[in-house]
Design goal:
The protein has 491 residues and is an alpha/beta fold. It has a seven-stranded mixed beta sheet, sandwiched between helices. The protein has a four-stranded parallel beta sheet with strand order 5-4-3-6, sandwiched between helices. β3, α7 and β4 form a beta-alpha-beta unit. α13 packs across α14, α13 crosses α16 and α14 packs across α18. It is globular and about 65 Å long.
Length: 491
């Protein structure tokens, strides 16, 4: 049995202790199918918990770990909150549609969904003992916050592992949620120093009380995004396509742990879309077997995640972190917003919505623009993507970016230059449409991380070439839902 894919109880004593523990917490678990379709399955529950503060460790917030929260993160929406970006902003006629991850509870990002998907099979099988284990969450920022949030709701201990160079806002949140500063494990480097995170986890795993929940290799991350995020993106497209004249052409997203990209596998089956993986040009691992440092926080590189369905990926798109830094200033400063209103004709509502876009969200939008230009898409074409988090996670990064790129200050002229260079000037360079041999090259890069360094068996590694392997993972959702039902009944 591959860890994280448990389908039955593997440790009955730990399982019984988990039940007793959650009885004390007073908590029940939502089924994955409920999170995939909250309007059908959670309407009554959402009304019952409307008084629960979405920013506190209230166990009822587990039932808000889905895409259908309103802007207040309390009410239920029939369609996930999203933005249809205007052509005056994107410079392309194709419709670029962005699902908003900052509607999720506690951490204002959809990474809390990934954490739930990784922990649940371990908890339900007894592989994770809530009374003994500490959940270790290796991350470049948001996933470890999601893990800490989920574990806190369950009354479990956590260790957050992340690079020391991540935004101060991430550490501020962790300091509020983790009582012991030693539970924040800072690793050397910044966004693309994932190997250092793995090394730290290897050291932590020597303590049998620590259970590593590595989002880059936990199939629960893939499964829950394919089931929940994929369904949410399809629902958004159906809403935007109310007149039936539009065609969904692609789902694009930054690689990160590759969990979110699993939504593309759902959309490919349901809507026939392409899947585009975005990476930083400063660390072009998939594009050029390259390496380097970058600051698109949330999309760690220099390796190929185990849960990335490479053979099902159609495009790789490179985006510069400098472009994201500059556009963050355009979208979220007074001079930038004045330029957008005066010269691009954006309404105040459209400008305000840009606050829902963090650095990796801007990268996703740039990737969508580049894909639309490469494919020469028109007004009836739709490119779907996600905003992992909002600008509020990067206020400190804005001053750093201004000093780095604009030593004499950021004004309307600089905003116009940044917009012209990075959006209107976005081209089809560093866009690769993947053929079989391109996919094989990228797939094989993962061998060095997972087989040689992390001890994955060659058989497990190679079976991931076959699309039936990934399609078969979806069959675990009803199995895990049944385990949740039995667990809740016992609690």
């Amino acid at each position: 049995m591959i860890p994280g894919l448990e389908t039955d109880i593997v440790d009955k004593k730990a399982y019984d202790r988990n039940i007793e523990h959650l009885q004390g917490v007073g908590l029940v678990l939502p089924r994955i199918s409920d999170l995939a379709d909250p309007p059908a399955n959670l309407a009554t529950k959402m009304a019952e918990i409307s008084d629960a503060d979405p920013d506190t460790p209230d166990p009822r917030n587990l039932f808000r770990v889905h895409w259908h929260n309103g802007a207040d993160r309390r009410c239920l929406t029939q369609v996930p909150e999203h933005i249809v970006l205007p052509q005056d902003l994107t410079g392309v006629t194709a419709k670029i549609v962005v699902a908003l991850g900052n509607r999720f509870p506690m951490i204002n990002t959809h990474k809390v969904l990934a954490a739930y998907g990784c922990l649940i099979p371990r908890l339900l099988s007894g592989a994770f003992d809530a009374t003994r284990h500490r959940a270790v969450w290796p991350s470049t920022g948001n996933y470890c916050r999601g893990g800490v949030a989920i574990a806190t709701l369950l009354g479990c201990r956590s260790i957050a592992v992340l690079p020391e160079g991540m935004s101060q806002e991430r550490f501020d949140w962790l300091n509020r949620w983790l009582a012991n500063p030693d539970d924040i494990y800072r690793t050397p480097g910044t966004e693309s120093n994932v190997k250092e995170i793995y090394d730290a986890c290897h050291d932590l795993s020597r303590n049998p009380e620590n259970l590593i929940l590595n989002q880059f290799g936990e199939y629960g991350n893939y499964i829950i995004h394919r089931s929940v995020t994929g369904a949410a993106m399809q629902r958004i497209f159906d809403h935007v396509n109310s007149n039936g004249n539009l065609t969904a052409r692609a789902f694009v997203a930054a690689t990160g742990s590759a969990g979110t990209l699993a939504a593309g596998d759902h959309l490919k089956q349901a809507l026939g879309t392409h899947t585009g993986a975005i990476e930083a040009l400063e660390c072009p691992t998939m594009l050029y077997n390259g390496y380097g440092e970058h600051n698109i926080q949330g999309i760690g590189d220099k390796h190929i995640p185990l849960i990335h369905n490479v053979m099902g990926t159609d495009f790789v798109i490179g985006v510069s972190d400098g472009a994201c830094d500059r556009l963050n200033l355009v979208f979220n400063t007074t001079p930038g917003r004045r330029y957008l209103a005066t010269y691009r004709g954006l309404t105040q509502a459209q400008i305000a919505a840009l606050g829902d876009l963090g650095l990796s969200s801007i990268a996703n939008i740039l990737g969508a623009i580049k894909y639309a230009k490469y494919m020469d898409l028109g007004a009836n074409d739709v490119v779907l993507t996600v905003a992992t988090d909002g600008a509020d996670m990067y206020h400190t990064e804005m001053s750093i970016a201004e000093n780095k790129h604009y030593g004499n200050g950021f004004h309307e002229v600089q905003a116009a230059e940044a917009f012209g260079q990075n959006i209107l000037g976005a081209g089809i360079d560093h866009v690769q449409e993947l053929g079989r041999f391109d996919r094989e090259r990228i797939f094989n890069l993962g061998y060095y991380t997972w087989v040689e360094q992390q001890g994955t068996s060659l058989e497990e590694f190679d079976r991931r070439r076959d699309q039936s392997y990934w399609d078969g993972l979806s069959g675990l959702v009803p199995v895990w839902d049944g385990m949740i039902d039995r667990f809740n009944a016992a609690v």
